[in-house]
Amino acid sequence: MKRPPAPDRLSTLVGIVLLAVMLFPVYWMVNASLQPAGNLLRAGWFPRHPDFGGYATALHDQGRNLVTSLVVALGSVVLSLALAAPAAYALAQFRLRGTRLMLFGVLVTQMVPGIVVANALYGAYTDLGLLNSRLGLVLADSTAGVPFSILLLHAFLRGVPREIVEAARVDGAGRLRVLWSVVLPVSRNALITAGLFTFLFSWSDFLFAVTLNTTDTVRPVTVGIYEYIGAHTNQWNALMATAVLASLPASVLLVLAQRHVTAGVTGGAVR
Amino acid sequence: MRRAGSLRRPRLPERVTRWLFLLPALAYLLLFFGYPLVENVVMSFRQYSASTFYTGEAPFAGLRNYAEVLPSDLFREAVLTTVLFTVGSLVGQFVIGLALALFFQRRFPLNGVLRSLLLLPWLLPLVVSGTTWRWMLDTDTGVVDRALRDLHVVSSGVPWLTGTSEALVSVILVNIWVGIPFNTAILYGGLQAVPAHLYEAAKLDGAGPVASFRHVTWPLLRPVAGVVLVLGVVYTVKVLDIILVVTGGGPADATQTLATRSYALSFQQFDFGRGAALGNVLILLSLVLALVHLRAGRRALDSRGVVR
Amino acid sequence: MRSAAISARRRFTALAGTVALALTAAGCGGGTGSASADGKVTSITALDYYTDTAEHAQWGARLTACGKRAGVTVEHRSVPGASLVPQVLRQASSRTLPDLLMLDNPDLQQIAQTGALTPLDAYGVDAGGYAEGIRSAGTYRGKVYGLAPTVSTVALFYNKDMLAEAGVAVPRTWAELKKAAAELTRPGRYGMAVDANATFEGTWQFLPFLWSNGGDETRLDAPQAAQALQLWVDLVRSGSMSQSVLNWTQADVHDQFVAGRTAMMVNGPWRISELDKAATLHWGVAPLPVREAGQTVVTPLGGEVWTVPQNSSKARQKKAAQVLACLNDSRSMLALARQYHTVPSRTAVASRYAREVPSMAAFVRSVERARARTGRLGVKWPRAATGIYTAVQAALTGEQTPREALRHAQRIATGS
Fold first, then answer.
1. A104 part of a folded domain
2. CATH for B65-306?
3. pTM score
4. Residue contact B30–C398, C-beta within 8 A
5. pLDDT block averages, 10 residues each, chain B of length 308
6. How far apart are CA C215 and CA C192, in angstroms?
7. Domain count, chain A
8. Smallest Cβ distance to C80: which of A124, A131, A227?
9. Do C91 and A233 touch (CB under 8 A)?
10. Contacts of A217 in chain C (CB under 8 A)
11. Contact A157, A103 (CB under 8 A)
12. A269: alpha, beta or left? (left if phi > 0; alpha if psi -120 to 50)
């Protein structure tokens, strides 16, 4: 190593400007949400007199939908990890025949358009009584989380030394036991990443939410926002406040679990 | 003793237990990907109408759905729009993403923080981004046109959402905005993997930044770039949320893609037969691109090993 | 035959069995049933498109009042106008229809055709004395399926101050309209606004221009139709009307008018109560202009009919029918008419209303002449309506000339 380079402050400045440009829409959303109610046809550049009325309306109208989104997203995380973790473990450690083919199959699922899945599920759900149910939405939303988690966990578990597993096996632990008390603990980080992204996928889901629900019993916040457009034109502040609330999980996770988010993007690349 | 027991375990059940780990996920994937693929083909040969699900009647229609959908102008326009949307989005995302990735190659304070904050647009629900942009792009009251007018770039407002070409440009721009962070992150990862000594060698050979990019960076980045582009195609072809929220497919159907058409046919007009037919065309389009994917697939799998 | 569409789904059901076992434990249905155990109905659900905050509250109150008389509470929900029909079709297929359903009158026959609605004579609802237009719109194959408490139509609303300031008279012909709109246009303000959305609402606003000029939904490729569309194109091209009309709903148009961003608009009298709330706004209302002086204005008949959908519970249907009858009794008619400046749909009540509220007499007369959208085409109306808004969009964006656009519309309407 040569002499330590002087901190490149100019680049930092350029970086901040670039980021500001990229995040301007996010700022604008927050700004709009703080405008007073009424005819919001022209918002100022800054919320000089922040008005939280939009948030009150948003919470009143969309509070239930936010809870629905949360429940569905958490359900999807549980389901996806429960299905993906054993599968990824098997694919990574068991030297099964057809492993490559199966991984390829999982990769191919990424090509199936959501609208095709929704088309077919609509009929099936009608007959099974899964329309307008949280379970139905959890199952459908996991179409993003399951393949993603399998790929991500597989990539991680391939790197877990076989000796650790073998050692536990030799000690007499069954395969399930090994998965539970050896494999899962060492893959904590990968599990968090997979769960985190599955959460965001389900939270953001719009297609299944709008096609597999015909009443308002189970209405995630994405559909709530969509229905706001064209219905309450004079309540842009409430709409934008809802949008801000719907952005909270992504923003919070980005700040709190930065490392996992970055790992998920490079490792999984699903959307 | 337990050890002895486990050694004595017969081979067949052992193989069965191994498969039991895979079975639930496999069953799920078959139900939620395999079944829809098959069912869509079946549906596309039947005639659905508003009353189908009420009466349970969807008579066999042979190829009629395809015969009605494929020759129509709307179909041709939808294919063209889908291709334009996909190509436009990819080029924009990739070029800007690469530029940002190269920029973040530099060492400067706050680099890591800025890089991860950059991910925000990609993580937000698409409905949220779409709604915000829809409001920003309004011709008369939107902030984009207001800024352009104030800067004297344009004299009258650009009809972002009400002109047919402009609306397509708008949805592409929004989709680019959403995709930049992903491209930046992956390409940055690829750039980091380029050994530093190669740059130094190039520098010693008297190569400028452009030459060093052409001869060192690009050749080594190509596998990653391929993965990014192929994944990009696969994800962009089926985009629905953004278009539905920003333009609703309009004006005058200018932003209707195969995906939004299929949605409208199935869930607005309740013609699931034709909706499924279009869905199958969409899959076919993806499949053509999948031939490329197939070749890049292995690389994609390998590149996933980055997770720690 | 109970078709293979269903049997195909058995495959999914069979496949699902494998996974279902593991998951049913976590199952949670989305049930909403509200009939208590002894079968007594305590609450019913109602669906309409009155999403506007004030309107939603007012209708909620009315439904509650009528529900009280029938001994039930009413769970009231509103969805945006354009998504009501798709929503209803989806609910029909999943058998989750509300107990009481509001439909825009031209949609009734299409929905009745699917078998999702029940004829009202089964409940002994009094369907006598209704004006012919709205009665026919609520009837499918000789049976009455829907009744509207009040009817309405559209007119030209203008900002008196803006007209006075520009020295412009209220336009009566299209030429005057274009001239007035141009003279009223200022930076940040347009002269005119309509709803040219790619929805049936856009079609509804175009109809008075089409019909008053002698055009007809059965001959969209006729020159009279092209002239009407040319008028809208000219207004946008000259900058007197924002191109954003392509995305505006009637509610947006109203907001633009209230915010002073347009001097004139096409809208309905149900907006009047909201317009009156804007203290600084001095507005007037006039018949829509015609192409040449001497032509008669023909406007579409507006009005939402209430229906009782198919439902597994006869008891709930009966309660819903009671609420429906209550909404349609003369007292409700008069109250609603006063509230929204619409016209009671029973002729006897309407003439009483005209006597009591003289300012509405003109509307009562214009509604009498208003034309039902399903009058000519019946269940085929939605196709023509789709053709019309498609043509409006294509022409206003400049993709096609009005003539080309309407020729295409005619093909859509006839399904060729």
1. yes
2. 1.10.3720.10
3. 0.88
4. no
5. 46 76 95 96 89 74 91 92 94 96 93 92 96 90 88 84 95 97 92 88 87 89 86 89 93 95 90 94 82 57 42
6. 22
7. 1
8. A227
9. no
10. 30-32
11. no
12. left
